[in-house]
Write a structure and sequence with these properties.
- With 624 residues, the protein is α+β, with helices and mostly antiparallel strands.
- It is built from 10 helices and 32 strands.
- Helix 1 packs across helix 8.
- It is elongated and about 115 Å long.
């Protein structure tokens, strides 16, 4: 293919002008990589700033100072040096340069690549066929990554044999023909009558061009309008359309969209009630979403990834609802409870709730919650004032001997937030971890000999957080008091919930929890009406009654047991974890009604707990 005459004339004209300038389609900054040999490296230009690559770098930075041009040119290199990492050259051919080949270039996520190998291949005796194969192999790699490549033709050189000159011309014509509008002519107008370098452009060594020659090469690259081409690629990268859903089950759904030729697509989805999106990349125009919760409404949207640095906006959102949960199925979390991965995990976690057994099932990855920042799965709710959080850790799989499952108070959802985390590991006992300063180290206390199933509890009173463990959920042992100055005081909202981490970023662990209670006290500065409304709401949902609540001197505990069984009752201080009253009854049935005013409890927050076959029940008591 003969170079377009208009382009050639424009390039020659610009070579005699002091400045080349075009009106740009956009001024966005792009990344360009130049791969080649000595001409690319700047040989023949004095000073080196006159080399065509360096001139071009200045030119594009004039469009946007954030443009980058990375130069992989090395004197003496041939097309074998740019071959991909996966290629094995013949025994008598050089190895690729793994620091300057196409694989390395693509790792930089460029928007465009320029290849410039003038004459070393023919001088080295490489056949036309292997030269062409080398070019195609490299540009095919770039094509897979959707990165456009411009290829310069061969250049004239002195002292070549007639066959070498013929081969140079053959490669020149093949590059023009094969790469069409993305070929750049570095031959036409540069030769003498004998196909050597024209004297006006010769550096004097018979191989390289001088400053004037580099200037012409620069102008011919400018004439390709590479920035405009890249701008149009961005503008033509459109969001997918035609989103639709099929094959919806209790835990899976297939989402589809119309293919628009993008390199790949980013699919984001989430339960409608949550804030954070999960993202999956795919090269197809459909995706099966798995691990979904039954009876749950989901939103999803799709983005076109047209190249490493070029993505469309996300499409409009579409929705679907998974099928109704069967009996005992793990369904959506209760209202007001949220879940997310905190920090950086390689595999997204999940959480669901089995209503019939009051069981929370969590799946999550993450390095740990013990360094300066945390990686874990969190199921949580906002928490204000004083109160407590307790749960029975039923099971946890052995993804790692140091994986963790328990309860956490957390100042924020940031990865380096202050927090207290108490729970169990698979094989190394229980733990108490706390970070007293944001983004600082975490302190740890180990408790050997404890394993699931086991109960853990934390209470909060002002800045004091008390940690307890229990084998039965009735008799609690105070393990530690921790002072977290200012965390959750003066009406500030913190978070309380269940947390797990697998101790590995790319491995999921699972854990099951039951009898999760968050008892959140209304601050004493609130009105009596607010206090009574909060307590009444809690008592309405519990078979265990405590009244009056808030209480003065006396208060009554009331419940019914239909059949004879062993039961236990306890009154526990929220702030200090002290057990102020405990009572165990064997083969008890009927109504229990007792005035516990004789305990003479001081004003403050307490938990009244009942353990029976029906499970553990608790009521938050506010003593005035």
């Amino acid at each position: 293919m003969i170079m377009n005459s208009t382009k050639l004339v424009l390039g020659i004209f610009l070579s005699f002008c002091s400045t080349a300038a075009y009106s740009q389609v956009c001024t966005q900054a792009f990344k360009i990589v130049a791969i080649g040999s000595s001409t690319t490296a700047g040989k023949g230009a004095t000073p080196i700033d006159s080399a065509w690559v360096n001139r071009y770098t200045v030119y594009v930075k004039g469009i946007n100072v954030n443009y980058t041009v990375t130069n992989f040119g090395v004197s003496g290199y041939t097309t074998y040096k740019m071959q991909p990492d996966s290629y094995t050259p013949p025994a008598n051919r050089p190895l690729q340069d793994f620091k300057r080949n196409i694989t390395k270039a693509l790792s930089l996520k460029p928007d465009a690549i320029i290849i410039n190998f003038p004459s070393n291949d023919v001088v080295s005796g490489y056949t036309i066929q292997e030269q062409q194969a080398n070019f195609i192999r490299v540009t095919d790699e770039a094509k897979k990554a959707n990165v456009p490549v411009w290829v310069t033709t061969t250049q004239p050189r002195n002292n070549l044999t007639a066959q070498q000159v013929a081969d140079q011309k053959t490669m020149r014509d093949w590059i023009k023909s094969y790469y069409k509008e993305k070929s750049i002519d570095f031959w036409t107008g540069m030769t003498s009558a004998k196909d050597s370098i024209a004297f006006i452009y010769s550096y004097g060594d018979g191989i390289h061009v001088n400053n004037t020659g580099h200037r012409i090469f620069f102008e011919r690259v400018v004439a390709e309008n590479i920035p405009d081409t890249l701008c149009l690629r961005v503008q033509n990268c459109l969001a997918p359309s035609g989103l639709n859903t099929g094959n919806v089950t209790i835990s899976k759904a297939t989402v589809r969209w119309n293919s628009n030729g993008a390199l790949s697509y980013n699919v984001q989805y989430k339960p409608s009630s949550e804030t954070n999106w999960q993202t999956i990349n795919t090269a197809a125009d459909s995706l099966v979403l798995s691990g979904l919760n039954c009876s749950t409404s989901y939103l999803y949207r799709v983005q076109s990834a047209c190249s490493a640095n070029n993505a469309s906006p996300y499409s409009s959102q579409a929705s679907f609802t998974t099928l109704t949960c069967p009996v005992n199925a793990c369904g959506p979390l209760p209202s007001g409870i949220s879940t997310m991965d905190v920090g950086t995990v390689a595999i997204a976690g999940s959480a669901c709730y089995i209503t019939s057994t009051d069981t929370y099932k969590l799946s999550g990855a993450g390095d740990d919650v013990i360094k300066y920042t945390d990686d874990f799965r969190y199921v949580y709710k906002a928490f204000t004032g004083d109160g407590s959080i307790d749960v029975k850790v039923v099971t946890q799989n052995n993804s790692d001997t140091a994986n963790e499952a328990g309860v956490m108070f957390r100042e924020s959802l940031a990865t380096g937030a202050r927090n207290i985390f108490v729970g169990l590991t698979s094989s190394t006992g229980a733990f108490i971890q706390s970070r007293g300063t944001t983004n600082a180290a975490t302190s740890v206390k180990r408790i050997v000999g404890l394993e699931a199933p086991y109960y853990v509890r934390m209470t909060k009173s002002g800045s004091t957080y008390s940690v307890f463990t229990s084998a039965d959920g009735v008799t609690w042992k105070l393990e530690k008091n921790i002072i977290m100055d200012g965390m959750g005081t003066n009406g500030a909202t913190i978070y309380a919930g269940l947390a797990i981490n697998s101790h590995k970023k790319n491995v999921l662990m699972t854990a099951e929890f039951t009898q999760w209670h968050i008892n959140e006290a209304t601050p004493l500065i609130a009105s009596q009406r607010t206090l009574k409304a909060a307590v009444a709401m809690e008592e309405k949902s519990s078979a265990l009654k405590v009244f009056p609540n808030p209480a003065g001197k006396s208060f009554f505990v009331d419940f019914s047991i239909p059949k004879p069984e062993n039961i236990s009752i306890a009154v526990i201080g929220v702030g200090d974890g002290r057990i102020y009253y405990t009572e165990s009854l064997s083969n008890f049935s009927g109504n229990y009604h007792k005035d516990l005013g004789n305990l003479n409890l001081a004003g403050g927050s307490y938990i009244v707990a009942l353990k029976s076959k029906a499970g553990n029940k608790s009521v938050f008591l506010l003593k005035q």
